[in-house]
Amino acid sequence: MKVSIVLAAGEGTRMRSDLAKVMHRVCGRPMLEHVLDASAKAGMDKNLVVVGHKKEDILEQISGENIVFVEQPMHDGAPYGTGFAVMQALPHIDDDCTVVVLCGDTPLVKNETLKDLMEHHEMNDNSATVLTTVMDDPTGYGRVIRKTDGSLLEIVEQRDASEEQKIIREINSGIYCFKASTLKEGLEEISNDNSQGEYYLTDVIGILNGRGYRVGVLEAKDHTEIMGVNSRVQLAEAESIMRKRINTLHMLNGVTIIDPERTYIEEGIEIGRDTVIYPGAVLQGRTVIGTNCQLLGGTRIRDSKIGSCVDIESSLIEESIVGDGTHIGPYAHLRPKSVLGERVKIGNFVEVKNANIADGSKASHLSYVGDADVGKDVNIGCGVVFVNYNGVSKSRSIVGDHAFVGSNSNLVAPVEVKEWGYIAAGSTITDDVGEGELSIARARQVNKEGWVEKKGFKKHK
Ligand code: UD1
Ligand code: CA
Predict the structure, then answer these.
(1) Fewest C-beta in 10 Å: which of 143, 317, 431, 449?
(2) What is the largest CA-CA distance in the chain?
């Protein structure tokens, strides 16, 4: 059985945050979720997440199959080190398990690397295997100390390292594979006799070595994967690396991204080929974009399904569905449960909410379409308001195919305009409009001849 222990109980002091460190987001998802995802994909049977500091944030937001939370008791409000954290998980692990230890603050680790680590560990029949990498700047990481024959001797933390050891650029990733029984034995021996007064998991390596166990190393080729996030500066670096990974994948799949450094696409979003994305786009959640679309001007799309050949400019789309060939924006807002058909036009400053708008219909300027069913080839003029709320409850409006709603009209729901209904500009519609009828609901115009002259207004000019 393969079990992971994911360490997530640390204080995260260097983040200077009220939020648990591992819950800070990278490309839209908490760091811990990225790590658990990699772990699940690497085939772990169980993931033991050690929580402590600010555990409420974590317990509230993280859940999933095979995830078990283990609490690390706090000592005077402070955690007690990575070794102490791992100890809390031991009662949940049988002696014959293979254990992979992960940190909740290394969001870039890939499942393939975890698989390689376990394979290397088993092939060499190691008792412990450390994943290491060579960093240009190893500051802050534990250094990997090798014997003269090149084999691993121990890991020394930055704070406890001599000047000579600090020069070493090979670092401990904080990711290890252990035989459960040997891990338990090693942890019994560690002490907190170090600069931080903490129990270091890293000390287990030197201890097992001293006892003659086989302790190996796997050097990760891609050092970006290993990056630990301890500060906001590193959070931004991790974000940038992951953003690049995601965007590169889309580009290789045939999506044009004009400026990949300024395009923010969360993991798991599908985008069809020949779609072109301009800088500033934000694609979030469960979003699917079809082929040949154009996304311009900082458009944000969340949890939505966009068809093919759709143009969207400077707009916000949430929990909505958009059909092929439709045009949206600039500055439009599709609020949740908006369903647009094919070749629809939603223009400048138009807001749509909980509404269906069928094929070929247009609302080109300055309208609010809320709680409505709009048929095909309907024209919604400039400034039309679907008056859906009476201060207490919401009601729906229905507009049939080919209807024409003149500019600056109000449709006071519940109301229905039948097919080919025609509403004169400036009307406030409170009663249903029949098929093919013209409805004028405004005061008739009165022109008073000579009125200005009579009032004597001309004299004053
Ligand atoms: C640790 C390693 C270091 C390695 C680096 C890689 C130790 C002693 N040091 O250092 O060798 O190069 O990771 O990123 O292991 N945690 C707990 N409980 C605690 C303390 C920490 O769960 O009591 C968790 C943290 O939430 C974090 C992880 O363990 O997710 C690592 O802790 P952190 O304090 O970030 O260790 P580093 O100083 O980065
Ligand atoms: Ca760390």
Answers:
(1) 449
(2) 113
